[in-house]
Amino acid sequence: MKAELISVGTELLLGDILNTNAQYLSKELAALGITVHRESVIGDNPDRLAQLVEDAKGRSDLLLFTGGLGPTGDDLTKETVARVFHDELVLDEGELDKIRMYFECRGGMPHNNEKQAMVPKRGEKIENTCGTAPGVLFRDEGCTAILMPGVPHEMRTMFERSVRGRLMEMAGGAIVSTMLHIFGPGESSLEEMVGDLLEGANPTAALYAKNCEVAVRVTARGADEKEAAALRDQLTARFRERLGDLIYSEDAEGLENVVVPLLVGKRQRLATAESCTGGLLAQRITSVGGASEMFDFGAVTYASSIKRRILGVKPSTLKKYGAVSSVTAAEMAFGIQREAKADFGVGITGIAGPGGGTADKPVGTVYVAVSTGHRVWVKRLSVEHSERSRVRRMSSQHALDMVRRLALGLEIPDARCFGRHAAEEF
Amino acid sequence: MKAELISVGTELLLGDILNTNAQYLSKELAALGITVHRESVIGDNPDRLAQLVEDAKGRSDLLLFTGGLGPTGDDLTKETVARVFHDELVLDEGELDKIRMYFECRGGMPHNNEKQAMVPKRGEKIENTCGTAPGVLFRDEGCTAILMPGVPHEMRTMFERSVRGRLMEMAGGAIVSTMLHIFGPGESSLEEMVGDLLEGANPTAALYAKNCEVAVRVTARGADEKEAAALRDQLTARFRERLGDLIYSEDAEGLENVVVPLLVGKRQRLATAESCTGGLLAQRITSVGGASEMFDFGAVTYASSIKRRILGVKPSTLKKYGAVSSVTAAEMAFGIQREAKADFGVGITGIAGPGGGTADKPVGTVYVAVSTGHRVWVKRLSVEHSERSRVRRMSSQHALDMVRRLALGLEIPDARCFGRHAAEEF
Question: Could you tell me which residue ranges the MoaB/Mog domain spans (chains A, B) (predicted)?
Answer without folding.
Answer: 4-170
